[in-house]
Amino acid sequence: MTLFPTKGIVLRSVKYGETSVIVAIFTERFGLQSYIVNGIRTATKKTGPKGNPFQPAALLDLVVYHQDQKNIHRIKEYHWDTIYAHLYSDIFKASVATFMVELLQKCLTQPEENEPLFAFMEDALQQLDKTTPAVVANYPVFFAIHLANFFGFRIADARGEGAFYLDLEEGVFTREQPAHQRFLDPAPAAVISQLLKVMQPSELEAILLTGQQRRQLLQALEAYYALHLPGFGNLRSLPVLQEVLG
């Protein structure tokens, strides 16, 4: 097997045997991959729990063994690429990060390299770590809107005059109320239109939303993803996120 350096974002870690874990990592070089890490659940006096680098949302530098035909690989070397200042200690940011990681994982169905997506996710987590509480509140909606761009069902940001409704089946704003029930009324649709124009997270501070508005938008976006990704199901992190940010 050949060794490769790559950065990675930890998505999920599952216990395996007495001391090992199997980790799902979205890598910059190979896309979504699974790795078995032996002995990681033993603690040492010098480093504390070894498993810390493999918690969800961790940004790591890796040297990995890789063969295309294998489903589970091994990691030769690993260390933190980014050490978060607040992401794991702030309950609000931690809840948002959990939501982001779960949403990304549900979208990733094939082990394909996607450097633009990796760069987007890496930046989104780093920005979340250092942003203000006012931005954190709107961050999940902002992230969910823009993540869809990478999976072929982006919401068209052309909201013409009189196009008041957002058709969730088609991902477009319409003048007439759609014949089906999967759409947003003018008020929440206008917020989505506004958020589509946000390019930097700092701009979210100027968008004032109530907890109820955010809950409605997140539920609508969950439905939007489910419409466009077969087998998407429900986001387990969403009820917790809504409770924390409510």
Automatic annotation (TrEMBL):
Keywords per UniProt: DNA damage, DNA recombination, DNA repair
The keyword DNA damage belongs to this UniProt entry's keyword annotation: yes
Residue ranges of domain DNA replication/recombination mediator RecO N-terminal in the record: 1-79
Gene Ontology CC: bacterial nucleoid
UniProt-listed InterPro entries: ARFGAP/RecO (IPR037278), DNA_rep/recomb_RecO_N (IPR022572), NA-bd_OB-fold (IPR012340), RecO (IPR003717), RecO_C (IPR042242)
A GO biological-process term: DNA recombination
Pfam families linked: RecO_C (PF02565), RecO_N (PF11967)
Family: Belongs to the RecO family.
Function noted in UniProt: Involved in DNA repair and RecF pathway recombination.
HAMAP family: RecO
Protein known as: DNA repair protein RecO
Gene field: recO
